[in-house]
Write a structure and sequence with these properties.
The protein is of the alpha/beta class and 461 residues long. It is built from 15 helices and 12 strands. Helix 7 packs across helix 9.
Length: 461
Amino acid sequence: MRSIQWSDCPKAEPSIPAPSKRTQCGTLEVPVDWAKPDGPTMKIAVARQKATDPKKRIGVLLSNPGGPGTPGVDDAYYAEDPHEGYPDGIRSRFDIIGFDPRGIGRSGQFRCDDKLAAKIPNRPKNAAEFQRMRTLNQQLAESCRARSGAVVDHMDSVSVARDMEAIRAALGEKKINFLGHSYGTLIGRQYARLFPEKLRALALDSAMDPSRPDAERFLRDGSAAVEDGVQQLADWCAKNTSCALKGRDVKAVVRGLFAWADAGRLFEPGPHGPTKKKVTADKLSDFLTSNLRKWNPQPTAEQLSLLNSGRGKVTWTDSTPEIAWRTVMCRDYDFRLRGWDQYRELQQRARSDAPTARYNSQALDMIAGCQGWPAAPEPEPAQAKGPLPPVLIVNAKHDLATPLPGARRMKQEFPQGRLAVLDSVDHWLYRKCQSPLPARAVDTYLRTLKTPSDGTVFPQR
């Protein structure tokens, strides 16, 4: 059995806070391809903070921050952070274990041709552009293999779950506790399928759809969530005098902006009126998905008002996705399309679910990025025999990134699953949302295995 040799953590870059002095770091050697356990290996970066009260210690708490493709050692580096870390009641009882998923951060330094990635048309307008997108995606994958090695084809959630099992064994623990956020919930679900008897607790925050939806259902679910987000903004404006669109039909304003964009008559606002820089319908969809997902309604309404009037300054968010998520998403979900005609039909069907907002740009990014990506989806792991603990899932009712229908399907995966919903537009509920209630429920569950009643709805405040 491979082990982890612990030592002080490496110094952080000058612009990044230093890890807690209580944090220890190490690496664990694992196979690049778990189907070939005696083949080439790689090292997984692991960090830990030991429980502050050994007498009350329950075990280890592993986590994954999602992304997909986000480094995870920070969970242990900054476990004491008063805003985004863990409360004393958790740190006293658990060793906090963070790890960078394979290929990410200190676990492989994933690299690709960034200049090539910038040339890929992520919103093709015709069959020729769709084919160019597909061809360049394939070339991008080849550049990733050339610069990062064979791990590029083995960054799927099943492989990461197997790495987690290797970490458990190296720590000498009989069972682990796991807290997954966003895409990390799928990794937790895969671990539960492969190693159910090795879980003491499984908490899933903002759950991915585990049923492997095809591209159409994935986009339609996401687009319906954005449409719902516009409705939530309209409802907020109807109740709040601070809304810049107070007294206006918010959905009509959005539809009007799209109509101008379709006609080529929507321009970025300037200090003295509209500039000459056009705003496309695709850019407007990106704006809605990005701003509604963060749910800060007052500035979102202000920005829409400025777009509508043509006077002022709109802040655009760079929504270009990380390249690394292709190596995960395109192995976990089958988003492959036959060609341009199916891609166009996909968008048209999404608009039936989102007549105001058009589509979810994050979901469409993921679908577009998998066109031409050469690695085929990983087969679904079979459910291993063994008892599962009660599983807690928390999700926002109006989540744009992980819509509620997917969380409900995740709950159906577990006989003793419990789903608690926060009545808000939010994503990532553990200490990063408008209400403290989801985090309290998760903390109570991790300590005691007691869950809220299935179907519990947390109020927004």
